[in-house]
Amino acid sequence: MTLGRQIRSGVFWVALANVIIRVLGLITRLVLAVLLTREDFGLIAGANLYVDALQLIREAGFGSALIYFRGRTGEEEEQAEHTAFWFVLGTAVVMYLLTLWIAPLAVSFARDPNPLIAPVLQVLGLNLIIGALARVPMVRLTKEMDFRRRAVPEIASNLVHVAISLPLAALGWGVWSLVFGRLGATTSMVGLSWWITGWRPRWVFVPRLARELFAYGKHIMGSQLLILGITNVDDLFVIRLLGWGPEGVYDNAYRLSNLPATQITGVVNQVMFPALAKVREDRSLFRRVYFQALAYVSLLAVPIAGGTILFATDVVALIGPDKWREMVGPMRWLAIYGLIRALAANIGNVYRSGGRPQYLTYIAMWRLTTMVLLLYPAIRWQGILGVSILSAGVAIVDFGISAVLADRILAAGWRPYVRALLPTVGVGGLLTVLTALVLSRWLTTPGVERLVLAGGSYGLVYFLTVLVVWPDVREHLRAWQRQYLSRGVG
């Protein structure tokens, strides 16, 4: 299969998995927003922040390093996989023991201490060990660009999460419905990934290969930790200064408005890093693949962000305006943040595939420093709304700096960015303004009817207009049709 067909196949399957996962996640979160309290969401957001940080330390960038790694022999590549497995698992055990000890100290961190956070951290921390078991099998599928089989455990695990969390929430289990939902999802992913790949660890650990993987992966881990800090330091400030309830409101606003970043970035990173790594020696092809990916990310990210800005009040009216009314403003600003984050996602793949992973660290350090310095005054100014405005502004500046650094590898200049983004950003921006005028004049009552009617019309007009003004979209749609309908999905 050619690289183009591999990319189209990868995009199809990863996109399908992500669409199913995010639609399930969106529906589940909306239902849970009705069943659970703001404090429940705040507690799980704080616990997830801690566990996710330790998961990045646990992996030490070994997943990306395995994708990039080219062994001298097939046996050496297998040895690298087993070495990575035992390193990640051993680190996970250490991290969990640390969690058991440190969890009680978290009780006094928030403005409104809640003793429930300690047992939540201790139980959710088991995810560190369970998730470690699935890392190498999932990385193998990614490296082989076998995204059709990779989609199975991803989709199934999210179905398990829904099947556990919703009934438990309805029965009054509160935050524990979210905890056990996540543990069940991870456990199912482990079982399915081992079954699908047939991979089993052997008692092999080669220190030389561990050092080689870590030499590459440490930059990835460092940048990912910094990025996690960037995307979550705002949560720490909100918890500390405002409390668990406001954190629950802010976390819901963030997750609902960041569909471009979470859904589309997942597709881009899973497919484009191995794709760019394959063509890193051919700079002309490398540039072409990158800018095509940027253009198609914007094709989806722009209308999702525009729709979030337009219909935030409708979403809040659906799940409960009394409980969640403070979400509207933050959702709109965080939609801008999510859009920029989605557009910038593939720049990181340029750094990694181009052999400059340290650029990820430089960018992340700058942004984290900026956020830490400005978060306190932003919260004192406008609470969670001030945090959302700050996040959007910093993201815009960050994209410009990241693009300048990426051009040291791409050597493409600014014109390809304009060609890639102008059709979607131009159409999406104009359509968002026109739709806002219609909503303010004729469809003034927020609710399900306006969300379905106006939201559906907005999406349909956007994609029809893009098809007219952007011939490349029509060509790629025909290519996908030929590949999947005429010859079967590859």
Q: How would you describe this structure in keywords?
A:
490 residues
Characterize the largest beta sheet: strand count, sense, and whether it forms a barrel: none
General shape: globular
User: What is the C-alpha radius of gyration, as a whole number of Å?
Assistant: 22 Å
Sequence of secondary-structure elements: HHHHHHHHHHHHHHHHHHH
Give me the secondary-structure category.
mainly alpha
First CA to last CA: what distance?
A: 9 Å
How many individual β-strands?
A: 0
Provide the low-confidence segments as ranges: none
Strand content: under 5%
State the domain count. 1
The percentage helix is over 70%
- Tally of individual helices: 19
Could you report the average pLDDT, rounded to the nearest whole number?
Answer: 83
Task: Note down, in words, how this protein is organized.
The chain is mainly alpha-helical and 490 residues long. The chain has one domain (3-486). It is 85% helix and 0% strand. It is built from 19 helices and no strands. It has helices spanning 3-35, 38-59, 62-68, 74-102, 117-124, 126-132, 135-143, 147-170, 175-197, 207-241, 244-257, 259-278, 283-319, 321-324, 328-353, 358-410, 415-441, 448-469, 471-486. α6 (126-132) packs parallel to α9 (175-197). The protein is globular, with a radius of gyration of 22 Å.
Short description:
The protein has one domain.
Indicate the topology.
Layout: H1 3-35, H2 38-59, H3 62-68, H4 74-102, H5 117-124, H6 126-132, H7 135-143, H8 147-170, H9 175-197, H10 207-241, H11 244-257, H12 259-278, H13 283-319, H14 321-324, H15 328-353, H16 358-410, H17 415-441, H18 448-469, H19 471-486
